[in-house]
Amino acid sequence: MAHVDFSCLVEESLGKQWYFTLTDQQIIEYSWKDGSGWTQPAQVDGQTVRQFSVTIDRNDKVCLLAYNNLKQLIYYEWNGQQWYHRLLYRVQSRFENISYLEILSTGDKIHIFYYIENALKRAQESLIHSYLEGEKWQSTVLMHFLTDQEVMLRLIQNDALGNLFGIYTRVVRNETRCYFIYYDNFHGSWSKPFTLFQQPGTCSGFDGHSDSSGSFHMVWVEKGGSEYRLNYRRINPAAPNVDTETVRILDETQQLHHPCVQAGNDLHCFWIQDGKGLVSRGSSLGKNWDLPQELYKGSVKAYRKVTKTLDGNAHFSLELGDGYPVFGWTLKTLLSGEKPKYHEIEKSNPSNQIGLQKESRPVVMLNYSSSAERKDQTLLDSIDQVQARMDGFQREIDEMKDRLENFQDALYQLQDYIRQKDKSSFQKEAQIRKLAFELEQLQTLRTSAPAICSERNEDLQEKKLISIEQPVPPDEQKNMQTELPDKSDVLKEQLDQYKAPLKNIDLGSGEIQLGNVSIIINPDDEESSEND
């Protein structure tokens, strides 16, 4: 999940600074720095969020992108007096979630990226790119993936020319594959993904920046077994796989946190390890790196810094330093010598060790005297009571928010259940209609078949009655005989049997026909033989 742990410092072209962070209740809180210091923190809209990202456009307008607990992706703009917001996307399915988001400002465009993941197996996931054109948002789906591929967006960065660089990883058979995509601002098109490397183990902590020549410099941490490796790679966007190799900066058994790279005349990689701020210097091409050097020992905070330049572009970088509210030093400024060493900082201003710690309530300072001690004690008791009531109200508000979130989850589940039921009922209704149509056809066939048979039987009966009641001329008998075969072959065979002469039987003529032989019986001979 991107940026959820990082506060953000935004700096306008004229030097005005904004600071954004998340409260303990996951609410976006902001303040700006005027002549006397930071203003009192204020909330953007009171919504609990999961992650957010901030940038500033060419007109010094602060833009914010947030994904809240209601599964809404909201875009905010500061108009000088209040926040204007617009709902960009709402996750409908309870199985989907936005795992990564980023907002960038390049020239006259605001770019938004977010990745929609899915908890189901073999389901589709998408990387969405949206940009503001005029007053309308245009959205395109850059890539589709499946959940089994275990895709994670790692970094999306821009350069001074408005080009965009993207890094994402996939896990294939316990190996991490890293891919690079590039947006050419001049042609307005995205490149196909290029495979940068394939390594065993897991990778994290990606950071990268481009230099004046257009090359992209990237660092990341690779964990293999019990070892941590800090790696570097230089990428040519025109030919990502040509003349590039992975260079190992450091091997350690202790975990490394928040690596970041600075690209200039020389390369520098900063990180935090075991409560220390360290740096390693690399050659111009990044093929050789010096041994780590300790810059600071103590509390070092990580935060994002967005800088607005006069050319209209905004650049973000990961900074390691003292953080809010002082922002007096970073590891980069300590290396350049712009600020004194860390032990001198601790002597002159011990509050730098506080870092991002904030006062959750106002501090009341009272001077007691012997005559007003009871009165002041009563005032303190009243303040404590009010504070206790406020804490109770806050707990009740938190409980209500939890109930509201549970209600929203239940509502999403009910909506999914209703959609599934509607789909099932539609399918059942279609099946019922199909069966009813087939049944109607069968009934039609069943009623029409007896009618046809009865008509044929009636015709035969009428012809029989006519032949019995009235003698039929021989000519008409011949016609009937020729018509009967058309009605039924069975009836024809029966009529032929009735018309054929009987064989092997004496019909009274004294002659029996056996084939072609006729036998004549002489009754006189039989009588004479009997008398004898």
Structural account:
With 532 residues, this protein is an alpha+beta fold. It has helices spanning 331-336, 342-348, 373-469, 474-487, 489-499, 523-531; strands at residues 7-11, 17-22, 27-32, 42-56, 62-68, 72-78, 83-90, 96-106, 109-118, 124-133, 136-146, 152-158, 164-172, 175-184, 189-190, 194-200, 202-210, 216-224, 227-235, 247-252, 257-263, 267-273, 276-282, 293-297, 301-308, 314-321, 511-514, 517-520. Residues 340-372 and 526-532 have low confidence and may be disordered.
Topology:
Elements: E1 7-11, E2 17-22, E3 27-32, E4 42-56, E5 62-68, E6 72-78, E7 83-90, E8 96-106, E9 109-118, E10 124-133, E11 136-146, E12 152-158, E13 164-172, E14 175-184, E15 189-190, E16 194-200, E17 202-210, E18 216-224, E19 227-235, E20 247-252, E21 257-263, E22 267-273, E23 276-282, E24 293-297, E25 301-308, E26 314-321, H1 331-336, H2 342-348, H3 373-469, H4 474-487, H5 489-499, E27 511-514, E28 517-520, H6 523-531
Parallel strand pairs: 1-25
Antiparallel strand pairs: 1-2, 2-3, 3-4, 4-5, 5-6, 6-7, 8-9, 9-10, 10-11, 12-13, 13-14, 14-15, 14-16, 17-18, 18-19, 19-20, 21-22, 22-23, 23-24, 25-26, 27-28
What would you call the structural class? Answer: alpha+beta
Task: Provide the number of structural domains.
Answer: 3
User: Number of DSSP strands?
Assistant: 28
- Mean pLDDT score: 80
User: pLDDT below 50 for ≥5 consecutive residues: which ranges?
Assistant: 340-372, 526-532
Q: Reading side by side through the largest sheet, how are the strands ordered?
A: 7-6-5-4-3-2-1-25-26
CATH homologous superfamily designation of the largest domain: YVTN repeat-like/Quinoprotein amine dehydrogenase
- Biggest beta sheet attributes: 9 strands, mixed
Whole-number radius of gyration?
47 Å
